[in-house]
Amino acid sequence: MVRRVAVVGAGSSGLACIKICVDEGLEPVCFESSDDIGGLWRFKESPEPERSSIYRSLVVNTSKEMMCFSDFPMPADYPNYMHNSELLQYFRLYAEHFHLLRYINFQTTVRSVTQRPDFSLSGQWDVVTINRDGEEERHVFDAVLVCSGHYTQPALPLSDFPGYETFSGRCFHSWEYKDADACQGKRVVVVGIGNSGGDIAVEISRSAKKTFLSTRKGAWVISRMSTSGLPLDMTAITRVNNILTLLLPKTLVNWAAERALNHKYDHRLYGLKPSHRLLDRRPLINDDLPGRILQGALVLRPNLRGFMDSGVVFEDGTVEENIDAVVFCTGYKATFPFLPSALSEGPHGEFTLYKRLFPPSLQHPTLAIMGLFQTKGPIMPIVEMQARWAVKVFSGVSCLPSEEKMLEVIESERKRNMKSYLCPRQAALQVDYISYLDFMAKEVGVRPNLLILLLRDPVLWVKIFFGPCTPYQYRLTGPGQWAGARHAILTQWTRVAQPFRTREVPEPETRPSILLSPWLLTFGGSVIMVVLLYKNKLIPALQGAAQFLDRSMIFIRDTWFTG
Ligand SMILES: Cc1cc2nc3c(=O)[nH]c(=O)nc-3n(C[C@H](O)[C@H](O)[C@H](O)COP(=O)(O)OP(=O)(O)OC[C@H]3O[C@@H](n4cnc5c(N)ncnc54)[C@H](O)[C@@H]3O)c2cc1C
Ligand SMILES: *[C@@H]1O[C@H](CO)[C@@H](O)[C@H](O)[C@H]1NC(C)=O
After folding, report:
1. Is the pLDDT of residue 513 over 70?
2. Which residues approach ligand 1 with their CB closer than 6 A?
3. Three-state SS at 430
4. What gap in Å lies between CA 106 and CA 104, rounded to an integer?
5. For the ranges 72-86, 345-359, 485-499, which has the lowest average pLDDT?
6. pLDDT of 272-316, one tens digit each?
7. What pLDDT, in 10s, does the model give residues 365-409?
8. Which secondary-structure segment (H or E) carries 300?
9. What is the band of 515 on the pLDDT scale with cuts at 50, 70, 90?
């Protein structure tokens, strides 16, 4: 019987895990090395070793209705894309509402998590912690949820660039970046076009003399703002889109979406165009980058080749002299120093995880690593679902396949992702937002049954099928059902509109008819596209069917009426 569960870390993942354990009647004990909750989202004026660190201006890249926990909608007046301090406030509300603080041991660092000598029988873990007075404590747990985050170890590939030892400017990682104050009037190079690289380059370009953004691959840049100014993820992450991208030829979808994007700013003209197709990887979410390029404040450059005394050389041979600083936005290494090294068994020391959660080599699946994945949507609802599944696995309600089978699945998923992500490590991390949530929801028994829903509650069905895949969908039925889920779905667009209601504008008198709704238009358009695409096959098929009907009628007439 699993009872006591150790939760390592009290960031957003740790909080969700504590809540889920309590819901399931388990006893969570959370250890948090700092003195507060929130992890990454708790801004600090200067970076602290071994901790994640964010910049002052960071605004989330996923919208509030999509990124909230499934039974705790964000306050209606919150902006759709909020500042990091507001997200931290939401986590405080969540912790308060569900009384989670009482389970957290602050200023207590987990030093090691190891299998007990009788692990093959008990599945239990020895956990060693250091408390605020420096005292070591030993605990025994039935299961462990690892929520320690993975943006703590900056990857700074300085030695890849010859000449850095003698470079006179400052070199630092985005982990150390807080704001652009020190960049005023300077000439700065930003390396890497991830979400941080884009944000930081834009911010620096507002005060620096010149900012260069160096990228090896380029990127598709997409705004947070979708059509009619609605949140991007709410219009993109829908079940109907998921089905359409499965049905329609991928090149066609890519072509159409890239065309729409290039219509706003031509990625080739702007020097942004990557070699991969739009849907193959996560696009860069940034509202301001193209504008800064248009204004000449931000200059795109190819990959950095190396340093000279006070300048840098790019791979196309161009040189920029008098560079004052180089900011490396080159990502992080995920490390879990307290876990047995035998668990990080990948060829590059990474974690091989079944469904991005369970190390397949354990005799008992009593340890799960939360949040170690990448996706085109928000992280929090997925981690929450991971926790719901993990506790079911701990208690034996949901069973994992054999080790062999798990390794097979891991390999086949990695192979599939390798088509888009050439790097095997990157490929292993990717999950498809709705498919992954649905898979886990099915294991937990909370996946919405669309057919039954269509018959019983067509209004809700329309919202769920055509509307955004908001997390409330996974609280409608089954274990952990929440009575407010249906209402939360029906009112989600009201909460989107609420923060805009700062100046009353009268409603138009006639409302647009449902036939003009963008969802129906998209759906109808797609059906027409399918028909057009397959018309060569469709027409003979229809002709065949007509002929068959014709012959059957003749047969029926001949046998029954004349025979
Ligand atoms: C710049 C940036 C922007 C992002 N923006 C978004 C976004 O807009 N939307 C989104 O969905 N995701 C975003 N993410 C992803 C983000 O990582 C997750 O959303 C989420 O914050 C992860 O939370 P976590 O609890 O897993 O980790 P963290 O928030 O890092 O929390 C880990 C906690 O564990 C504690 N800890 C670590 N080691 C130990 C130990 N040994 N013992 C005890 N305690 C320990 C730490 O002190 C910390 O409190 C962003 C990430 C970055 C880096
Ligand atoms: C948001 O930004 C973080 C940090 O760069 C990134 O890991 C995440 O994938 C981004 N989310 C989306 C939906 O692009």
Report:
1. no
2. 8-14, 31-34, 39-41, 51-52, 54, 58, 60-62, 67, 109-110, 147-149, 151, 196, 338, 371, 378-380
3. strand
4. 6
5. 345-359
6. 999 999 999 999 999 999 999 999 999 999 999 999 999 999 999
7. 999 999 999 999 999 999 999 999 999 999 999 999 999 999 999
8. strand 298-301
9. low
Atom of ligand 1 nearest to the CA of 371: 26
Co-location of 312 and 377 in the same domain: no
Give residue 532's domain range: 517-561
Residues 94 and 170 in one domain: no
Residues 253 and 122 in one domain: no
Q: Ligand 1 centre and the CA of 379: distance in Å?
A: 10
| One domain for residues 202 and 323 | yes
**Minimum-distance ligand 2 atom for the alpha carbon of 377:** 13
With a CB cutoff of 8 Å and minimum separation 6, the contacts of 325 are 169, 170, 171, 172, 182, 183, 186, 188, 189
Residue 509 lies in a domain: no
Which structure tokens are listed for 377? Answer: 């949507």
Residue 220 DSSP SS3: coil
Using a cut of 0.70, tell me whether the model's pTM lies above it. Answer: yes
Q: Would you say 322 and 181 are in contact if contact means Cβ atoms under 8 Å apart?
A: no
Mean pLDDT, rounded, of the chain:
94
Residue 338: pLDDT band with limits 50, 70, 90: very high
How close is the Cα of 29 to the center of ligand 2, in Å? 29
Between 517 and 124, residue with greater pLDDT: 124
Ligand 1 atom closest to the CA of 12, numbered from 1 = 25
Closest CA to 211 of 181, 190, 184: 190
Question: What's the 84 CA to ligand 1 centre distance in angstroms?
Answer: 12
Ligand 1: centre distance to CA 152 (Å) = 9
CA within 13 Å, CB half, 267: 21
Compute the distance between CA of residue 16 and CA of residue 103 in angstroms, rounded to an integer.
12
Q: What atom in ligand 1 is closest to the CA of residue 52? A: 30
The residues, ordered by sequence, that sit 6+ positions from 542 with a Cβ below 8 Å of its Cβ are: none
Would 457 be classed as within a structural domain? no
Centre of ligand 1 to C-alpha 48, Å, is: 14
Does the structure show a pLDDT above 60 at 355? Answer: yes
Mean pLDDT of 534-554: 78
* Distance of CA 195 from the midpoint of ligand 2 (Å): 6
Q: Which of 330, 359, 374 is the last residue of a domain?
A: 330
**In terms of domains, do 203 and 282 share one?**
yes
CA 12 – ligand 1 centroid, Å = 7
What's the rounded mean pLDDT across residues 81-109?
A: 98
Residues with C-beta less than 6 Å from any ligand 2 atom: 61-62, 194-196, 282, 285, 374, 376-377
Which one is predicted more confidently, 62 or 548? Answer: 62
The residue to mutate among 84, 282, 287, 372, having the most atoms of ligand 2 within 8 angstroms of its beta carbon, is: 282
Q: Return the exposure string of 502-530: e unless at least 16 CB atoms fall within 10 Å of the residue's CB, then b.
A: eeeeeeeeeeeeeeeeebeebbeebeebe
For the chain, the domain total comes to 3
